[in-house]
Amino acid sequence: MADPNAIKKGVFLHDSPVFPPSSTLEPPFDRAAERCLLRKLDLRILPVLWILHLVNFIDRANIGNAKIQGMEVELNLVGQRFNICVWVFNLGYLVAGIPLQIAFKKYGPRSLCVMMFLWGIAVIGCGLVRRWEQFVVCRLLEGVAESAYISGSAYLIGAYYSKNEYLTRYVFFSTAGILAGAINGFVSSLIAKMDGTAGYGAWRWIFIIEGCVTIFVSLACWPIVPPFPEDCNFLSPEDKALMLARVKADGGHVSDDEITFKKTLGFLKDWKIWAGVFMYIGVTENANSLANFQPTILKGLGYTATQAQVHTIPVYIVGAVFSVIFAYMSEWLQRRYYFYMLGWTVLAMGLAVEIAYPANPNVRYMGMFFIACGCYLAMPVGVIWVSINSGSGYKRAVSIAAIISFGTVGAFVSSNVFLFKEAPRFHTGFSTGLGLACMGALAATITWFGCKRENKRRDHERAELPAVLDENMKELGDEHPDFRFAL
C-alpha cells in the first residue's frame, strides 16, 4: 500500500526500497522534496569527505614545506634527489590507483579510512628516516596508500548526486586540497618553532605531527563516512526512497555491478578516458609544481623560509574562491568545455608571466595566483566532465581512477623539469608546464568535438527507433541510444 504523503513528494513507497517505474533520465520528482534532500546530503556527505581530503593533501604537499626547513641539508638532497622524492610518490599513485579503486567499489567507503590510516604511518616514517633512500621508500608507500582516495571520494559523491549537481559538490570537496596548501604554509611556520625539540629538526616534526593527526582523523571518521546509497542509514524512509530513485534515474552508482579484468580492459578502450588523462596531465603538472616548489620559488623572490610559507596562503585561498565561483557557473550553464578552457587561459597567463621573469618580484608573485586559479578550475572540470560521460558503476569508477592515476604523469614531469641549477627562474619547469597545458587544451577540444558529433549521430539514429526501448540503461551505460554526452 502506498503512502499518500510519499506520493505527494514524488516517491512511491513500498515496504522495501523501490525505484520509480519510469525509465526516463529526468523523472518528474517534486522539486521541493529534492531541495530538502540535497540539503541533507550536503550536510552529511560533503563535510566528512572534505575533512579527509584536507588531511590527505596536507600529507601530500608537506614535502615542499619540509624541504626549506632543513630536510634538504640533513638528508643530503643534492642534485635531483629531492625531485626523486617527489616523483616516487606519484609512482605509487600510478601503480595502485585502479586496483585500489576497484577494491573501494567492492568493499565500500570505509576502505577510505583504512587507506588514510596506512598513509598516516608512512608520513610518520618520513619524519623518522636517517637516509634519503629511506625517505624515498616512505614516500612510495604513502603514494600507494593515497592512490585511490581522491578517485574513491569522487565516485562516492557522484553516487548520491545527479550529473547536474556533481561538479559543484566535487569542486567544494576539492577546495580542501587547495586550502590545505594554505594551511600547510601556516602550520609549517608554527611547527618550525619546534626546531631542535627532542633532538629533531623542524622538518621532522612537520611529518611526525601531521602523520599523527592523519591517523587520529582516520579513526574518528570511521563511523561517520557515508556508505553507498543502497546502505544509507542517515535518511528517513521517504528521503531514502527519493534518493534511490534519483540514483537510478540519473546517478552514476550501480549497487549490483560486477567487475572482471576483461571488463576493466574493455572500459579502458574508451577514447574519452584517455582524452581525460591528457586533460588532467595538462593541469596537474602545474598544480603539483605549485604544491611542491612554490615555497622554494617564493624563497627565491627574497623571502625568508617562514615568509615564504606564509605567502603561499593567499595564493591557495584565491585559487579556491575562483574555482568555486566558476565551477558553479559551469554547472548552471551546463557547459564544461568552455570553463576548462577558461581555466587553461588563466593558467597560461600565469605561466607566461613566470617564463618572462619580469624584474619586479611582485609581478612574479601575481603569476602564482594566475597559475593557482587556472589549475584549480580546470582540474575538477576535466575529471567530472569525463566521469559523467562514462556511464555508471564500475566504468565510472575505473574512468575516474584512470584519469587521476595516469594523470600523475604530469607530476612525474614536474618533479624532473624544475632544475635547481635554474633557481629561482625555473625556465625549463614553467615552459614545460605551458606546453603540457596546451596539450590539455587540445585534448579538451577533441573531446568536445567528438562528443558533439556522437550526440548528433545518436539523435539521428534515435528517431528511427521505437519510443520505448528494450535495452536497459544500467546494462548499456553510455552506449545506450538514449544516453547523451555532456558538453
TrEMBL record:
SUPFAM superfamilies: MFS general substrate transporter. The keyword Protein biosynthesis does not apply. InterPro entries: MFS, MFS_dom, MFS_trans_sf. The chain crosses the membrane at residues 78-100, 112-132, 170-191, 203-225, 313-330, 337-359, 365-386, 398-420, 432-451. The keyword Transmembrane applies. Keywords: Membrane, Transmembrane, Transmembrane helix, Transport. Gene3D superfamilies: MFS general substrate transporter like domains. Residues 45-455 form the Major facilitator superfamily (MFS) profile domain. It is a multi-pass membrane protein. One of its GO terms (molecular function) is transmembrane transporter activity. GO terms for cellular component: membrane. It is found in: Membrane. PANTHER family: PERMEASE-RELATED, TRANSPORTER, PUTATIVE (AFU_ORTHOLOGUE AFUA_1G11820)-RELATED. This is MFS general substrate transporter. It comes from Clathrospora elynae. The lineage of its organism: Eukaryota, Fungi, Dikarya, Ascomycota, Pezizomycotina.
